[in-house]
Amino acid sequence: MLLSTLLRSGPAAWTALVLIPALCWLSLQNTGSTIATWDSVTAQSTIVLGFVSAACGACAAWEASRIRTAHVLEWAPARSRLRIATEHLVPTAALGLTGLAAALAVHAPPALGGPGLPDPAILATAHLVVLGHMAAGYLLGLKAPRLLAAAVMLTGGYLWGFWPAALGEAAWLRHLNGQGIGECCSLDRQPSLRSLGATAVFSLGLIAAALAVLLLDRSRKRTASAWALFLACALTAATLAVPLGFDGTQPRDASAFRCTGSKPQVCLWPEQQPHRNVFVREATGAAEHLRAVGLQPPARIEFGMVKPGPSDIRTVTAAGLLPTEPPACSQGPGAHYPGDAAFAPLYVWLALTAGSSPDSLAGRWPQEAISLAQQVRTLPVPAQRAWYDRNLRALHDCRVQPEPDPAKAAAPGDGAP
């Protein structure tokens, strides 16, 4: 059958008129969560995968129902069952590719011009998910009425595409439907090959089951073979996915990490290298400001942003002086941690001391913390250090009460719990 005939008579072209604009709109709502790396852009673009796979599964079910209703499989066997299915599903497969490409195009601008390309493993796995739904839809369409098969695939495909990601328990299910990497990635993390493998194997199970039904002759034999192939792949996929839990990322190859400068040493990923001079200049300037009040900045600094702002670099440099985790004494039932109240004022004071502007901190931190830190900045350097030392102890020791009032914190001999 001619492709033009399939496009006119099948559901794929009509579905595209609704699906592609909807995918572009949905993708635009999600672009704020990406960072300017191809891994992040490609992974985040798959957030619409549940819509694409559900629509393609419904289209495949519709096509199979048409073939069953027309008794095409009972005609003289000029074409094999597999060839018939393949020819009728080509437009639907193209619809899936187009949908994924449209979502990627919307997410791509932040990564344009940077090193690398869209992640082929993510894209290939996403399209396998679409093909898996098409295989399931085609099998259902051969057995169920046209409207019922399409409705079941549209509803069931949507639920399977998004429901596992909402589960607190059995979080590993998200790695079977393609949403395991939906929240990836950071500069030092990349998509987990194990997560992608679990997704691919599960989808291949659906495809293998459909192939068994189409290629084998005896009804009992093909049904048993189809179920055996699917269950074997599903079990393998679950074995890969269960240890992952929520996390669909893995550490990035550290050989791409490069450090430059000294006092402090600034370490950057390839995407950050075009802005290396800005990172080094602002981090060095922040370190000098911190030393002016008697603080020793971190010897090595890493940054999470790709395209830096001077205030952001200085803030990150200064924040390296604060603990990244609460102390052990703050953990456990009934634990009391008064030092938590000191974190925001300390963070803001360090950022301002390093040269960040108050405007860059507004909206990120409470205005009370910003006003307090600015008040502390008006004191003599020894008094500022006394305030900082007292409240920093409260971050490390649950027995120490923070003292945000700079006059009290700087009082001689203060610092007792």
Unreliable residue runs: 412-417
Output the radius of gyration: 29 Å
Largest sheet: 3 strands, mixed
Q: How many discrete structural domains? A: 2
Mean pLDDT over the residues: 88
Number of helices, counting only DSSP H or I runs of 4 residues or more: 16
Judged by helices, strands and strand pairing, the structural class is mainly alpha
Helix fraction bin: 55-70%
Total number of β-strand segments?
Answer: 5
Net shape = elongated
Order of helices and strands: HHHHHHHEHHEEEHEHHHHHH
Which features characterize this protein?
single chain; 417 residues; mainly alpha; three-stranded mixed sheet; 16 helices; 5 strands
Describe this structure in words.
The structure is a single chain. The protein is mainly α and 417 residues long. It is built from 16 helices and five strands. The strands form two sheets. It has a three-stranded mixed beta sheet, covered by helices on one side. Strand 4, helix 10 (276-292) and strand 5 (300-302) form a beta-alpha-beta unit. The chain crosses the membrane at residues 12-29, 89-109, 121-140, 147-166, 196-216, 228-246.
